[in-house]
Specification:
five-stranded mixed β-sheet, MecA_C_sf, Negative regulator of genetic competence, 6 helices, Alpha-Beta Plaits, 10 strands, alpha+beta, 204 residues, Neg-reg_MecA
C-alpha cells in the first residue's frame, strides 16, 4: 500500500492486488458495502494519518479506480461530500469517530500505465513494442520526474496482453497514476501514436 499527498485535502492510495488478497478482498468487493472493505478503508486512513498527517475528518469523497495488471487507486478528498435533499444526514449526537461520511465513485480503467525513469528506457521499450508488433499506439506524459506511457489494451491483440505487460515491466514499473491525474498535473508529450512517433524520430 502506497500513499501520497496530492494537495492539503487530497491523497492518493495505491493498492496492489496482493494488498487486497492479503485481506481476503476481491477486486469486485470494492464495489460493495461489506465489513472487510470498511476495515481496509479504516486501515488506509490510519496509515494516511501516521505517514502524512492527513486527518480523515468531516465528509470525504472517495474515488476508486481499478487498473489492469496493477491494482487499484483510491483518491480521497476531504470536505467534498454532496448532500442531496432526500439524503439522510447524521445528527452530531449520533456521530461516531470510526464512521466516515463518504460519497464513493467507482470507475474501472483498462488503460495500462507504466513509468520510466529515463527517456532512453522509453525509447528502448517503444522499439521493442514496435519490433514485436505489439502496438504503435500510446500516449506519453511527463509527471513527477518520470515518463509515463499509457496504452489502451483494446487496441492490442488480447492474446498478447501478457506479453505486452512483461515487456513494459522489463524497462519500467507499473504506476498508480491515472490519466485524469496526468492530464491535470502532468505534461502531455505525445497525445497519440507515441510508440510510432518515437520510433520514427529517434534512431537506435
Amino acid at each position: 500500500m502506497k500513499i501520497e499527498r496530492l494537495s492539503q485535502d487530497k491523497i492518493r492510495i495505491f493498492l496492489t492486488f496482493d494488498d487486497l488478497l492479503e485481506r481476503g478482498i476481491q477486486k469486485e468487493d470494492m464495489w460493495r458495502e461489506i465489513p472487510k472493505v470498511n476495515e481496509l478503508f479504516s486501515e488506509m486512513m490510519d496509515q494516511a494519518h501516521s505517514e502524512l498527517g492527513f486527518e480523515a475528518s468531516g465528509p470525504l469523497a472517495v474515488e476508486v479506480f481499478a487498473l489492469p495488471a496493477q491494482g487499484m487507486v483510491v483518491i480521497v478528498t476531504r470536505g467534498k461530500l454532496n448532500v442531496h435533499a432526500d439524503d439522510s444526514v447524521h445528527d452530531d449526537e449520533d456521530a461516531d469517530e470510526d464512521v466516515y461520511e463518504m460519497e464513493v465513485t467507482l470507475e474501472q480503467s483498462d488503460i495500462v500505465m507504466y513509468a520510466f525513469r529515463d527517456f532512453e528506457d522509453v525509447l528502448a521499450v517503444c522499439r521493442r513494442l514496435q519490433q514485436s508488433e505489439l502496438t504503435e499506439d500510446g500516449r506519453l506524459f511527463a509527471y513527477n520526474g518520470k515518463y509515463i506511457l499509457a496504452l489502451d489494451p483494446s487496441l492490442i491483440d488480447s492474446t498478447r496482453h501478457n506479453a505486452l505487460i512483461a515487456l513494459l515491466a522489463e524497462f519500467g514499473e507499473a504506476t498508480s497514476v491515472t490519466e485524469a491525474v496526468l492530464e491535470e498535473y502532468g505534461k502531455t508529450i505525445i497525445n497519440a501514436g507515441a510508440v510510432r512517433e518515437l520510433c520514427k524520430h529517434f534512431t537506435f
